[in-house]
Amino acid sequence: MKMSFIQSNRMMYSIAFVWCLFIFLIVVRSEPVDYNIRGTIKPGWEFVRNLFRENFVKDRDLGASVAAYHQGSLAFELGGGWFDQSRTKPYDVETLQLVFSTSKGLVAAAVALAVQRGLLDYSALVTRYWPEYGRNGKENTTVADIMSHRAGLPNISTPFEQFLNWTAMIHTLEQMTPLWSPGSAHGYHAFTYGWLAGELIRRVDPKKRSLGQLIREEMSDPINFEFFIGLPINQEYRVSPLELSENIKQNITESNIELVASFNDPRTHRAEIPGANGIATASSIARLYSALNTDLDGGKFKRLLNEDILKLATRSNTPEGEIDQVMQLKVSFGMGFLLFHDIFPEFGPDTFGHDGFGGSIGFCAPTKNFSFAYVMNRLEGASTDGYPRIAPMLKKIAEFLNR
């Protein structure tokens, strides 16, 4: 039977459509996916973009931002991916992110600033500034003990709702008995560090401000960065919600999953939980760490800490080889800062900063006059590879700086 003219045309159209679709798929697949990566890169640092992009290619990140300062000026700031699971809004360099314990570096800097101004002394007893603290075995606790996780109060068992109430948390800490003699050992104070250090600052502040207000007025505004302890309600719309990776969901308890969910609550964002609820952009974290070490933007903004105070704040207060009583690892702490000399040796022996649950980080390498930060909305568990999101990036950066 001969094929009709209409049937013949239909077949040709079908074949043409299939070929067009095939060619279209080849073109689409050959074009690199954009992943919404946008930002600023100075000449010479372009290699960072492709390394950042790999985190989206390998599905490590949903949305993230990375930034660095070199010699007091912005080297690069990039944002990429999506603001949330709806994938309708890009994650950009202005996106605010809750960064868990990366917040501790900001608190450590605030305490160091108080020391520089003569308001606090690391070697002094806490009771000199906070008399009510000296009870139930805590009488001989020093400021340095609190700052280097040696206070003996690593755990606190109160409902999360109480975390939102500063006065209630301070009263609870005053009544507690340390798990070890303060100063005799160290163990990571995941939440309590923030209230302990924060209350010391509040006690000596001549204006009696909240910690968040003091940080804004004495640090953020003068240096021009955004790193909030206690988020203003009018900035809530900029905060990207946290999510757990599939891997981490399988490795943490249901109660911890619920705890993480609590950190997506706007009430938690407005509260002051200084050890864990700091909210910032990557470029602001990198800018803070640069400002601790050097003047910014060609001298327009003067450094926050002088050289002597910075060295004092970043000197180890952890005896060599001492095991952390909570993490059961060898970890070194200065006055609130995590010391990265063993973790990032390529950046120099004085590298310091802090990382946060899920993968955020901020640090400064003074000998390289370099600071770096990474924030993201997808939380990943601890890895035997160290920092898989940033390790390839930092390796190339170190080679670039060490040329």
UniProtKB/TrEMBL annotation:
Q: Which Pfam families match?
A: Beta-lactamase
Tell me which UniProt keywords the record has, alphabetically.
Answer: Signal
**Annotated Beta-lactamase-related domain residues:** 55-383
Q: Which residues form the signal peptide?
A: 1-30
Tree of life domain: Eukaryota
Return the InterPro entries for the record. Beta-lactam-related, Beta-lactam/transpept-like, Beta-lactamase/esterase
What name appears for this protein in its UniProt entry? Answer: Beta-lactamase-related domain-containing protein
Against PANTHER family, the record matches this protein to: BETA-LACTAMASE-RELATED, BETA-LACTAMASE-RELATED DOMAIN-CONTAINING PROTEIN
